[in-house]
Design brief:
232 residues; mainly alpha
Length: 232
């Protein structure tokens, strides 16, 4: 038994290591899962808003939308620097979204102050649904699928990865800004985030995504949460 164990253990470790190198995006998926767990825990504790929740929301909802590009960056790099390339991409991507989240939070605060939270939340919900139907949203969505050539090594490779991440962040903002504003308007409610995340995943990865169905889903989800939870 001891001999078999000595042979099996390194085999499992080798397979795990090989999986990690072949799927360098694994740790971004794990980060997203941990962010969702954090948001769920905060929601159960009654602390759904704040800078920490907004940052976790970006990691939870945005990173899974860019897994294909993240994998492209890692696999286009030298084997030994795959994770470094992926990290550079994520830094550029999240830097854009963190800045935009601050703008969206300020915009929501201003709208709620001027029109009242309930009216402003209703307006944001309608705007989010209409944006799903807008041709401009589809143009931004197409840009989210593009790839670019990357330098293989050195500081140019690091700069290319971060620049590509930032470019993907800008395209993603163009696609998802209205949904993220709706999430802020509904106090980062976990049911709202899950519903809007489903709409985002459908738009990004489903081959026959239906914009009218997505718009209806956004309105239905936000209306249901506002009715059941009194949010907005």
């Amino acid at each position: 038994m001891s001999g078999a164990g000595a042979v099996t253990a390194p085999g499992l470790l080798d397979r795990a290591r090989l999986f990690g190198w072949r799927h360098p995006e694994w740790w971004a998926v794990l980060a997203s899962a941990l962010a969702w767990a954090y948001l769920a825990a905060r929601g159960h504790a009654g602390h759904g808003t704040g800078a920490a929740a907004a940052g976790a929301m970006v990691v939870a909802m945005m990173l899974p939308l860019t897994i294909a590009q993240l994998r492209h960056v890692a696999l286009s790099s030298l084997w030994r620097r795959r994770h470094r390339a992926a990290a550079g991409f994520i830094v550029g991507f999240l830097a854009v979204w963190i800045a935009v989240e601050a703008v969206l939070a300020a915009a929501w605060w201003g709208m709620a102050s001027l029109a009242g939270a309930t009216l402003a939340a209703g307006a944001v919900a309608v705007a989010a649904a209409l944006w799903e139907l807008a041709p401009a949203k589809r143009r931004h969505l197409r840009r989210c699928h593009r790839t670019v050539p990357l330098a293989p090594s050195g500081w140019r490779a690091d700069a290319d990865c971060a620049r590509f991440g930032a470019a993907m962040g800008v395209s993603c903002v163009g696609t998802c800004w209205a949904l993220m504003l709706a999430s802020a308007a509904f106090a980062h409610s976990l049911p709202v985030m899950l519903a809007l995340f489903g709409v985002q995943l459908s738009g990004r990865y489903r081959q026959r995504h239906s914009a009218p169905l997505a718009a209806a889903a956004v309105l239905a989800a936000l209306a249901a949460v506002q009715h059941l939870c009194g949010i907005g």
